[in-house]
Design brief:
This protein is mainly alpha-helical. It has a domain at about 1-55. Helix content is about 80%, strand content about 0%. The chain contains 6 helices and no strands. Helix 1 (about 1-55) packs across helix 2 (about 55-65) and helix 4 (about 95-110) runs antiparallel to helix 5 (about 115-130). The longest helix has about 55 residues, at about 1-55. It starts with a helix and ends in a 17-residue tail after the last helix.
């Protein structure tokens, strides 16, 4: 009789944890199925919205705006203003130095002698410090104005010399 009770106790002791594990596994499986179904529905909604956006009027309208468009004209105006200002201002000195040093180091890594690299750096420095056409025009206008004020001829125009006061 004790063997039967002991066998029943062992069987019951093994069955209860397994039953609890199976119950919670079933609960987790139900949650996973619910999440899978929700994800599938969300994916279908997203796919439908993307198809509508890509194949509908929204995408073609935005694409047209990018190429031709309403917003494109404003961007072109701003970009043109920035480009003109950048041409007048030029690169800032730290950027010029960084580019020159980087190019020199790059060339030196390929076995070019230090004297040649120094010459290449000097050439790049001369290139980067070259004045833009706008700067040259501004400088010429300033020189003409100063020359005119002191009575020197400017482009065929002769200004009368100023009378010195005693």
């Amino acid at each position: 009789m004790h063997d039967i009770l002991l066998g029943a106790l062992i069987l019951f002791a093994g069955f209860v944890p397994v039953a609890i594990a199976l119950y919670y596994s079933k609960q987790l499986l139900n949650k996973a199925d619910l999440l899978y179904t929700m994800g599938k529905a969300e994916r279908e909604t997203t796919v439908n919205e993307m198809k509508k956006w890509l194949l509908g009027d929204e995408f073609s309208l935005r694409l047209k705006n990018v190429f031709n468009g309403m917003m494109g004209a404003e961007v072109k105006k701003v970009k043109a203003g920035i480009k003109e200002e950048a041409l007048i201002q030029g690169l800032p000195p730290p950027a010029k130095k960084a580019i020159i040093d980087g190019a020199g180091s790059f060339i030196e890594d390929y076995g070019v002698s230090k004297k040649t690299v120094k010459g290449i750096k000097a050439g790049l420095e001369m290139f980067f410090n070259k004045k833009s056409p706008q700067q040259i025009q501004q400088q010429d206008a300033l020189i003409k104005q100063m020359a005119g004020e002191y009575g020197f001829p400017v482009q065929g125009q002769v200004f009368p010399p100023q009378q010195e006061q005693f």
